[in-house]
């Protein structure tokens, strides 16, 4: 029993200390990430990812099961409604330039 506990403790320590080296940093909100990143939702673990650039896939719908980040500054996430299933699971949008006003 003690060996199992020590093995678990060793694994947890290694996993925790290598989180930022091997794995993407975990997050719960955008505030946990760098200014140019967002907390990308996942079914298993959320992680900080760079905000998408021009014509990259994005997500601005908080109702999706998993999600991509919203667009970087100066860009807008536009839904192109290609596939309902894809839209519900990850979002069905891409980043485009904001129109000149």
Tell me, rounded to a whole number, the average pLDDT. Answer: 73
* Major β-sheet annotation: 3 strands, antiparallel
Segments where pLDDT lies below 50 for 5+ residues? 16-21
CATH topology: Lipase, subunit A
Basic shape: elongated
Query: Cα distance, first to last residue?
Result: 68 Å
Overall helicity: 25-40%
CATH class: Mainly Beta
What order do the SSEs take from the amino end to the carboxyl end, as H and E? Answer: HHEEEEHE
CATH architectural label:
Ribbon
Strand content: 15-25%
- Structure annotation, total helices: 3
For the record, what is the CATH homologous superfamily label? Lipase, subunit A
Class from helix and strand fractions = alpha+beta
Radius of gyration: 18 Å
Tally of DSSP β-strands: 5
Strand order of the largest sheet: 3-5-4
Number of domains: 1
List the SSEs and their pairings.
Elements: H1 2-17, H2 19-22, E1 37-40, E2 47-50, E3 57-58, E4 75-79, H3 84-89, E5 93-97
Descriptive report:
This protein has 101 residues and is an alpha+beta fold. The chain has a single domain (26-97), classed as Ribbon (Lipase, subunit A), CATH 2.10.80.10. Helix content is 26%, strand content 20%.
List keywords for this structure.
three-stranded antiparallel beta sheet; Lipase, subunit A; 101 residues
Q: What would a concise description of this structure say?
A:
The chain is an alpha+beta fold and 101 residues long. The chain has helices spanning 2-17, 19-22, 84-89, and strands spanning 37-40, 47-50, 57-58, 75-79, 93-97. The protein has one domain (26-97): Ribbon (Lipase, subunit A).
